[in-house]
Amino acid sequence: MSQSIFKVKKGYPIGLIDADLLDNGTRHPNLALMKISGYFKESGLETVLLHDYSEIENFQKVFISKVFSFTNTPEFGVKKNVIIGGTGFFQDGGKDLPNEIEHHMPDYNLYNSYINNMIKNGQRREYYKDYLNYSIGFTTRGCFRKCDFCVNKKYNKVYLHSPVREFLDENRKGIYLWDDNIFGFDKWENVFDDIESTGKPFQFRQGLDIRLLNERKARRLSLAKYIGDYIFAFDHIKDRELIERKLKIWKNYSNKTTKLYLLCGYTSVDHVDIYNTFERIRILMKFGCLPYIMRYQNYKKSEYRTLYITIARWCNQPKFFKKMSFREFCLANQKYHKNPNTLCSALKSLNYFESKFPDIAKKYFDLKFENLSLY
Known about the structure:
By secondary structure, the protein is α/β, with parallel strands linked by helices. It has helices at residues 19-23, 31-42, 99-102, 112-120, 129-132, 188-196, 215-223, 240-251, 271-286, 305-315, 318-321, 326-335, 345-356, 358-364, 369-372; strands at 14-18, 47-49, 61-65, 82-85, 134-137, 140-141, 159-160, 174-177, 202-204, 230-233, 258-264, 290-295. The protein is globular. The strands form four sheets. It has a four-stranded parallel β-sheet with strand order 2-1-3-4. Strands 5-8-9 form a three-stranded parallel β-sheet. It folds into three domains: 1-121, no CATH class; 133-233, Transcription Regulator spoIIAA; 257-375, no CATH class. The protein contains 15 helices and twelve strands.
């Protein structure tokens, strides 16, 4: 990103807009905006997190960032004072921030006025824990996988990005790492040493590449002062044998809750994709792991659109997934349906798919986590 766009006049405030926050709401702060804010504040300028787009004309510079491509933003036209960035605008994220901004301490106070206002209006403080309780940053960047569905294709390898103390706020209780693929870095243990030297619990929020897991990595990870669930991914059924081998290694070291992202609706949105999704769910049940369904946007074009939604609702709520089969979950939804003379969308989608593919339904719709888990 050109350094010239960061040249500003003293005495005029800088506007910052988190587009994802304004459109969909998000539980994660925008790291780029926090770094930009920290940089300008250190230079003696005022930064303001804008709550809408109406005041853009009142600022000498307005930086607008969004992570998600589905986030709606207005047409800005040609406005010299507006600078946009992030994977929501550019598939590869656009140009990198200048080095002195990329490696600047984030302004962890940027969202305070917004959060205080939301809490005052009844929102729970816990909802904003990612904003308030954790230091956030990247120790490594890049990934060599270049998965078709992933925006992270800019770099060909994983490289060291920054020491953890570059973004560490000692007053925050934990650390969230947004590294793309930490286990793809050959000196990953040095990074773990650096993180653990802080004494603070941490989590790799983007998930970890289980395909790169080995005994050494599994042992080190299981002994870490880790926050919450361990998160991996199981995106393709073709990887089933490899994933099962790696899960066997992992389960030798940890009995803590382990979750795997399951991408669906990407290679197809037909009965084959539904079958492959349920087969991956079955495998995770066997290993005592939780699936987290990630629906690629193409699912909206499927005749099984509602079924995709129902599968996600079942899997992504562990309290239901651990106790109910898919069929039981749909029947439970029917009990709360307002009109007893019609079917709820969940049961209707189950019945429709079962009428067309009874063999698939017979194989998967009555599986239960508590019966299948070997752990």
